[in-house]
Amino acid sequence: MKLLFLGGDRRMTVAFDILSKKYECSSYGLFDNDFGDIKNADAIILPIPSTRDGENINAPLTRIKLPLDILKDAKRGALILTAGYDANRYPQTDYAALDEFCINNAISTAEGAIAAAVENTDTTLFGSKVLITGYGRVGKVLLLRLLSFGADITVSARRESHFAELDSMCIKHINSKEIAKTANSFDIIFNTLDLDIFGSEVPKSPVIFDLSTKGCAKGEHKNYIKLPGIPGKTAPLSAGRIIATTIEKIISQKK
Q1: Residue 66: which domain range?
Q2: Are 89 and 31 members of one domain?
Q3: What is the pLDDT of residues 189-213, one digit of tens each?
Q4: Can you list the pairs that 25-31 forms with residues at least 24 positions away whose Cβ atoms lie under 8 Å?
Q5: Global pTM?
Q6: 158 and 93 housed in the same domain
């Protein structure tokens, strides 16, 4: 089976090396001077995220521009593996949306976010008033990790089931609708929600570490730190292994 990697960062190079041992792999926009043949690929693997501007494939390791329109050259029946992008083709799979990927990837994201907080704040996590916005996969891993640091944690959520779960662990919580109103009462905020929570009115007190794709605030602010694609920056080897394992499972199921 012929696999083609289109664009990607360091974690995709790791996935490429792993899968090259089992499949015939080529790339376009992942390494210097690579021009893989999209027309003959059985599976085409886009990076995480597949695109940042909605026009080009994310290819930060090379100077090559890969317009998303290149996918029209894929042969009929080729499997398109995307990450947060609808290729508008069949068959395709958003591998970054699969539970087995998201759960493992959340660990790298949470650990990277905590490392950023240690490096970019003047206080210890121990005793700091911390707000985790959102109680999804990343939020849950963050909660467990931060508890071990002795942080004073509050979690924002919306579902009654989440409030009940947090109550069972004696974790303080607020409704996500109240984030903007209560933000200044915290020292650190870890945002996992893809919502424009603050707009241009970023609260002054907390340091905000934004793990979301779209961002929770507008503009540049000294206490607002964007952390997109953390796994690819802080743990590319682990992240690449997760990608490779996920892709291999998808391919084996499609055969």
Answers
A1: 2-97
A2: yes
A3: 999 999 999 988 899 889 999 999 8
A4: 26/2, 28/4, 28/64, 28/66, 29/57, 29/59, 29/61, 29/62, 29/64, 29/66, 30/5, 30/6, 30/59, 30/61, 30/62, 31/61, 31/62
A5: 0.83
A6: no
